[in-house]
Specification:
Structural class: alpha/beta
Shape: globular
CATH topology of the largest domain: UDP-N-acetylmuramoyl-L-alanine:D-glutamate ligase
Largest sheet: 6 strands, parallel
Number of helices: 16
Number of strands: 21
Distance between the termini: 48 Å
CATH class of the largest domain: Alpha Beta
């Protein structure tokens, strides 16, 4: 983590107001949350739509903060810790992260894409860890605050940092990549996410390509080579970076071939390379593309195929993404973190391929952020669902109801149910679940469908206690 004197901090954020006698005081880490702040840290109060971190300065001090940044338009508090004044605390923490990044020798890999960012990040970090001291974005802290905080948590001797970059509008990834200054940039995919803000797929491509604006001049650019629009846009650009592509098409540098897939994981090989097959313990054949993107970068940094195999066997995946949860009564495929047409069809395809289950139940929530065509996109999902592969379809939310409405004529009567109330859905789901059932739960994050998963797991615990 960042450890600097307050004099250095003030210079890095271009602040002012620090007293001479406080310049030598050292901070050890940065926090924006008084609930998580630790002794010796710098407190940075952030102002949001519904909160103002400046109001919690006393709590930060009580938890051990030794100094704070402070927006100049806020009343200066009467406190016993040094204050560095800045124009805006959000901009200041971004400046601090950018300055700290410039002082590190760490190689940074930036990852963006409509789908697959987090899985690729998790896989790549594990591969690089077989040889280098590696850190990665925690969870999905991939925005204007998450990326700076990730950088500020990097150890000075970290050799590799894998940083996820998300966006919902043009200009956001340009900001993040400028802060992170990556040595490698990866675009995992182009899909329909954030169409409500970006409006067109063309704008999504443009937003993802912003990652190149911060890429070091001698850096590596890795991208999914099967997307025609992305390829077309790249051809129009004057790109002088070394580029590597992955995908199914034979024009790609790395071409993965699926050998097998089940609920334990996938086995795949790489065309054009004389190397052994690879096994990855996560469900979904689409994950081989995320793994391939990671392998391309690992090879670039000198990781052997043997080390790659070792790294693939030790990946620590972020939760709520193709997470298989086994209970005594059923299996849950928890993919409740986000949803868009591409990722939803991939999740359904994964479910179709999972054998030896008496019943397959699908729980789908609204896909948020699809823009003006959101209803049509939900209806298209309803048309594409393979009714021969699942037994029941339950939806929750006004948009997901269009999935149910479109799919219902092709299912047996009573097998497609649309709910507005989560409690009623859970009650019905518990009645439908039988031994050797599998339940896919998929929806956009704001629906918090992980609570359905938690309720099913809690039910299992209660039943076990009753048996005892």
């Amino acid at each position: 983590m960042i450890c600097r004197s307050l004099k250095e901090i003030q210079e890095m954020v271009k602040g002012y107001g620090l007293k001479k006698e406080d310049e030598a005081i050292a901070i050890q880490g940065v926090s924006i949350d008084t609930r998580q702040i630790k002794t010796g840290q710098l407190f940075v109060p952030i102002v949001g739509e519904n909160f103002d971190g400046h109001k919690f300065i006393n709590e930060a001090i009580a938890k051990g903060a030794v100094a704070a940044l402070w927006s100049k338009n806020q009343a200066i508090p009467s406190v016993d810790i040094p204050i560095v004044l800045v124009d805006d605390t959000l901009t200041a923490i971004q400046k601090l992260a950018k300055s700290y990044r410039s002082q590190l020798k760490t190689k940074v890999i930036g990852i963006t894409g409509s789908n697959g960012k987090t899985s690729t990040k998790d896989i790549l970090a594990s591969l690089l860890s077989t040889r280098y001291k590696t850190q990665k974005t925690f969870g999905n802290l991939n925005n204007h605050l998450g990326v700076p905080l990730t950088i500020l948590k990097l150890e000075e001797d970290a050799e590799m940092a894998v940083i996820e970059m998300g966006t919902s509008n043009l200009g956001e990834i340009e900001l993040l990549t400028t802060i992170a200054s990556p040595d490698v940039a990866i675009i995992t995919s182009i899909g329909e996410a954030h169409l409500d803000e970006l409006l067109t797929i063309e704008n999504i491509v443009q937003a993802k390509l912003e990652i190149l604006k911060g890429l070091n001049h001698n850096g590596l650019f890795v991208y999914y080579g099967d997307n025609p629009l992305l390829n077309e846009k790249i051809k129009e650009m004057d790109i002088n970076y070394k580029t590597i592509t992955f995908g199914r098409n034979f024009t790609n540098t790395y071409i993965p071939w699926l050998e097998s897939s089940d609920e334990r994981g996938i086995t795949f090989s790489l065309g054009k390379f004389n190397c052994p097959s690879f096994y990855l313990s996560i469900v979904g054949k689409h994950q081989m593309f995320n793994a391939t993107a990671a392998i391309t970068v690992a090879r670039y940094f000198g990781i052997s195929f043997e080390q790659i195999q070792d790294g693939l066997s030790n990946v620590e995946f972020t939760g709520m993404r193709n997470e298989v949860i086994h209970t005594e009564k059923c299996t849950i495929l928890n993919d409740s973190y986000k949803s868009n047409p591409t990722s939803l069809m991939a999740a359904l395809d994964t479910l179709y391929g999972m054998k030896n289950y008496r019943h397959k139940i699908v729980v789908l929530g609204d896909m948020i952020g699809l823009g003006t065509k959101e209803i049509d996109m939900h209806r298209e999902i309803g048309e594409k669902i393979d009714f021969s592969q699942i037994d029941y379809l339950l939806t929750i939310g006004p948009l997901a109801a269009h999935i149910a409405q479109t799919a219902r004529p092709r299912f047996k009567k009573g097998r497609v149910l649309a709910y507005k109330n989560r409690t009623y859905l859970i009650q019905k789901l518990k009645k439908l679940m039988e031994y050797e059932s599998i339940v896919l739960v998929k929806g956009s994050r704001m629906l918090k469908l992980e609570e359905i998963v938690e309720e099913l797991q809690r039910e299992e615990i209660i039943e076990n206690k009753e048996v005892v």
